[in-house]
Amino acid sequence: MPELPEVEALAGFLTGRMTGHQVGRVMPVAVSVLKTYDPPLDALVGRTVTAVGRRGKFLVFTTDDGDGPYLAVHLARGGWLRWKDDLPTLPPRPGKGPLALRLLLAEPEGAGFDLTEAGTQKRLAVYCVGDPQDVPGIARLGPDPLDSAFGRDAFAALLAGERRRVKGVLRDQGVIAGVGNAYSDEVLHAAKMSPYAIAANLSEEDVSRLYQALRTTLEDAVERSRGLAAGELKGEKKTGLRVHGRTGEPCPVCGDTIREVSFSDSSLQYCPTCQTGGKPLADRRMSRLLK
């Protein structure tokens, strides 16, 4: 799933290609992709894109300096944006392929992007709204962890009273915007903290260490992705991850074997030596499968 660094880089990539250009056509292909009906997608046609930004994991396209409708896109788990300079100008045919929506600029002819979604769980979401806050997922977002106003004390206040595991708190978009499964693993590894630690039980030192790891991990990932073309971002994310998706590989810090805990629809990775005092975490799902 694209998270804060990749969506931030996509916004930067699209800013250089779309700002100052008019929308020519917006053509939904998959019925499931469009989550709003008023204003209609056609309201974007003829509008000038004046900004492309990020709200959490959402891409937000501003038209006519905010006077026109906004286009908000959430790529979900299997979605992606593919930019091309030579897209077909004829409407695409609905089918069983991954194409969900196509947007073409009025000029240069053929320039625009396709939104695609792999897999059977169709969660890619597109909203055409009068205000980004009209999108429920944006309205509920917590603070952005890279916002200059988001300091250590604000972070500590979010954790206070949280009886959930810190891994779940970091992934909760209503608490902190933009962090998902992959970067929460990376942040916790950098902080040398167990994903099962209860957030409210963290010491002052723990909170400071976790806050620093959160900022540094995300800032480094954004910097690595800056300036890359849309098609290169997935590869950059994978190569930059130290523990997530690397089960069975040696930890780059201590050399211990990276372990995994599996859930019904996701998994987490961690280093026992760096994060849990050398003890593997319980993985009840895997235990049941091995019986």
Give the CA-CA distance, first to last residue.
31 Å
Q: Give the SSE order as H and E letters.
A: HEEEEEEEEHHHHHHEEHH
Oligomeric description of these chains: single chain
Strand order of the largest sheet: 1-6-7-5
Which geometry do the CA atoms define? elongated
* Major sheet summary line: 4 strands, antiparallel
The overall strand count is: 10
Any low-confidence stretches, pLDDT <50, length ≥5? 286-291
Average pLDDT value?
93
Quickly count the helices: 9
Estimate percent helicity: 25-40%
Rounded to the nearest angstrom, the radius of gyration is 20 Å
Strand content: 15-25%
Structural class: alpha+beta
Please explain how this structure is put together.
It is a single chain. By secondary structure, the protein is an alpha+beta fold. Helix content is 29%, strand content 19%. The protein has a four-stranded antiparallel sheet, with no helix packed on it. A hairpin with a 2-residue loop joins strand 2 (49-55) and strand 3. The chain is elongated and about 60 Å long. Mean pLDDT is 93; it is low at 286-291.
Overview features:
291 residues, alpha+beta, four-stranded antiparallel sheet, 9 helices, 10 strands, 19% strand, elongated
Question: Summarize this, please?
Answer:
The protein is an alpha+beta fold.
Secondary structure topology:
Blueprint: H1 4-18, E1 23-28, E2 49-55, E3 58-63, E4 70-74, E5 79-84, E6 99-105, E7 112-117, E8 125-129, H2 136-139, H3 152-159, H4 166-171, H5 181-190, H6 204-225, H7 233-240, E9 259-262, E10 267-270, H8 272-275, H9 284-290
Antiparallel strand pairs: 1-6, 2-3, 3-4, 4-8, 5-7, 6-7, 9-10
